[in-house]
């Protein structure tokens, strides 16, 4: 029987680190592109003639939204499973390497096409914008590679279950499984649109594409994509941060329940990204909005659980009063402080999400830069700062080094710099969005229109925030390189939380995948079947491809 | 027989270590923040559409 590892096996560690190297290279490239965008939109800076705003915007979105996240998450989940369910077998590890290389080859293909200005179609690659076929093939390989990585995780989980019949799997392995399954179900949508619609169309095999079907398939994938980013952060919040602060996990069952709810409710909700889309019956939009609001439940369960973990710990250390426990938290430990900033950012991020998902309120903010501000709080703060917080202990753990006091201090500074930069940038984006400033648009005064003039001070504030954030990226890269190659040798702890003694026993129903996948599929069929029949029955002739780059 | 303990008042306050009142207050504050944001944009909607 496999037992829990104190140290992740070096061979598994190398596989994880390979994923992280690509992720942090992506951070450097995508971060630079982000800085350039904010500078262009301030109106004070122009790009050289050989590149353009939309090319830079595509680099930023693809490299950070798709590459950084997928590589980091797959690496992190491999580390979690290797740590909590035992070292990967040679076959599982080999599968992981095949997944890694497939994703890497795909990334390079897509990146080359973007750099050659053959694919400035932004990270959502909406039709009828048409990219070079190699861009779509590259993205397909990234997805297929992630499935192969996922297969390695599922194999490792299956061998743990076989060796431990009748026992609930380790919490972090369970969470990685939920995220992997959700990812596989969700990516079927994007794979379908790319393979059956966009690829034949870009190769010239078919002349026209059904835009509505392709966008619907994209958002069938696009919303769970958001949860694919978020759930690894939740894994750290639920099951790792309690150990870092010296406390206990409030409840194992609550954590599992909330993950299962995310599996069920994060997929049949894509229409809330298409609320202004013609061609979808409002009744079905309403249904998917209701399902979207059900995702609020596990989010609030998470908030409750985290507050409770912190309060229980603080009180066990003698904290008194209503909020005395806050003072007892380890404010000098970057492994806690940096993800904590991420948790705080999730409060305004969640509030903004409720606005986005409400049909009427969506009309106030749709396609404005408010939306960009929103996902720079969710993904680029809550998720990314948690990933940075994870890196501060996981990278040295895997490379046999330690996070020194000096680096810990720098890491806290990094988190604070990020928070300041994002307050400026995302705050200004939210405000400008409420005033109607569009997203995905280069600098323009719109013929000197009075309304567009109102946006300019906010765009300057975005550039100030973007510059501060870029400083944060440089700090992060410096710390990453230090932890990977130069920090003193030693043993850095891999913190895995223990469940509170007061928590109830975990029921086995959570491991009943047939049940959960069955309900997931039913909900998807319920939410999407009739709308898809409508779209196909009433389809227009479709659109030819456009290349504006 | 002397009963020195009876009638003697002590001011020691015992805090319940398992109390989650801070959590309750926190989730309420969070809930209010969500509602205020939503209602704020809702009035913007009413104003504009």
TrEMBL record, chain A:
Record keywords: Electron transport, Heme, Iron, Membrane, Metal-binding, Respiratory chain, Transmembrane, Transmembrane helix, Transport
Coarse class of the protein's main subcellular location: membrane
SUPFAM superfamilies per record: Cytochrome c oxidase subunit I-like
GO cellular component: membrane
Keyword Kinase: no
GO molecular function, one term: cytochrome-c oxidase activity
Location of this chain's protein in the cell: Membrane
Transmembrane segments: 20-40, 52-76, 97-116, 136-160, 172-198, 218-241, 253-271, 291-313, 334-355, 375-395, 416-436, 456-481, 515-533
Occurrences of domain Cytochrome oxidase subunit I profile (ranges): 1-485
GO biological processes: aerobic respiration
Membrane topology, record value: Multi-pass membrane protein
Family: Belongs to the heme-copper respiratory oxidase family.
Full protein name: B(O/a)3-type cytochrome-c oxidase subunit 1
Natural source organism: Mesobacillus subterraneus
From TrEMBL, chain B:
Ranges annotated as spanning the membrane: 24-45
UniProt keywords, alphabetically: Membrane, Transmembrane, Transmembrane helix
Transmembrane in keyword set: yes
Protein name as it appears in the record: Cytochrome c oxidase subunit 2A
Phylogenetic placement of the source organism: Bacteria, Bacillati, Bacillota, Bacilli, Bacillales
């Amino acid at each position: 029987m496999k037992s829990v590892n104190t140290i992740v096996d070096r061979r598994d560690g190398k596989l994880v680190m390979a994923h992280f190297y690509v992720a942090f290279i992506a951070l450097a490239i995508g971060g630079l592109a982000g800085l350039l965008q904010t500078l262009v939109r301030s109106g004070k800076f122009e790009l050289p003639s050989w590149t353009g705003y939309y090319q830079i915007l595509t680099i930023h979105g693809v490299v950070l939204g798709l590459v950084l996240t997928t590589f980091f998450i797959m690496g992190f989940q491999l580390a979690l499973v290797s740590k909590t369910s035992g070292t990967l077998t040679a076959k599982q590890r080999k599968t992981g390497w095949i997944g890694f290389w497939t994703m890497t080859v795909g990334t390079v293909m897509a990146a080359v096409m973007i750099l050659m200005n053959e694919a400035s179609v932004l990270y959502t690659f909406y039709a009828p914008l048409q990219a070079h076929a190699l861009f779509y093939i590259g993205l397909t390989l990234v997805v297929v590679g992630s499935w192969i990585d996922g297969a390695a995780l599922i194999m490792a989980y299956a061998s743990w279950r076989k060796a431990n019949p009748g026992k609930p799997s380790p919490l972090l392995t369970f969470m990685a499984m939920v995220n992997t399954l959700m990812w596989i179900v969700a990516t079927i949508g994007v794979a379908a649109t790319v393979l059956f619609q966009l690829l034949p169309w870009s190769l010239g095999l078919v002349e026209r594409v059904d835009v509505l079907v392709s966008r619907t398939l994209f958002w069938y994938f696009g919303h769970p994509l958001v949860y694919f980013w978020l759930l690894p952060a939740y894994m750290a919040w639920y099951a790792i941060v309690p150990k870092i602060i010296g406390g206990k996990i409030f409840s194992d069952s609550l954590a599992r329940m909330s993950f299962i709810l995310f599996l069920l409710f994060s997929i049949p909700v894509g229409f809330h990204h298409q609320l202004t889309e013609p061609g979808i019956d409002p009744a079905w939009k309403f249904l998917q909005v209701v399902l979207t609001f059900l995702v609020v439940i596990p989010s609030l369960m998470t908030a409750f659980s985290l507050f409770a973990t912190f309060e229980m710990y603080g009180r066990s250390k003698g904290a008194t009063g209503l909020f005395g426990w806050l003072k007892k938290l380890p404010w000098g430990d970057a492994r806690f402080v940096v993800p904590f900033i991420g948790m705080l950012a999730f409060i305004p991020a969640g509030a903004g999400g409720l606005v986005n998902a409400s049909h009427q309120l969506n009309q106030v903010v749709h396609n404005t830069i408010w939306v960009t501000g929103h996902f720079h709080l969710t993904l680029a703060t809550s998720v990314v700062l948690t990933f940075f917080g994870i890196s501060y202990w996981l990278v040295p753990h895997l490379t046999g080094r330690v996070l020194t006091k000096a680096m810990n201090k720098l890491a806290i500074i990094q988190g604070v710099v990020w928070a300041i930069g994002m307050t400026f940038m995302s705050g200004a984006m939210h405000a400008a969005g409420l005033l109607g400033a569009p997203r995905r648009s280069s600098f323009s005064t719109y013929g000197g229109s009075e309304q567009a003039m109102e946006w300019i001070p906010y765009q300057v504030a975005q550039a100030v925030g973007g510059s501060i954030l870029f400083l944060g990226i440089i700090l992060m890269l410096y710390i990453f390189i230090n932890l990977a190659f130069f920090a003193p040798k030693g043993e850095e702890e891999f913190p895995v939380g223990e469940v509170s003694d007061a928590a109830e026993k975990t029921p086995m129903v959570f491991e009943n995948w047939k049940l959960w996948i069955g309900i997931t599929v039913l909900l998807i069929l319920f939410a999407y079947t009739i709308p898809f029949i409508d779209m196909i029955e009433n389809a227009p002739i479709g659109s030819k491809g456009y290349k504006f780059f | 027989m002397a009963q020195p303990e009876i009638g003697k008042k002590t001011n020691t306050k015992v805090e319940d270590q398992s109390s989650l009142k801070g959590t309750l207050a926190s989730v309420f504050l969070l809930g209010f923040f969500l509602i205020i944001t939503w209602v704020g944009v809702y009035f913007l909607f009413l104003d504009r559409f």
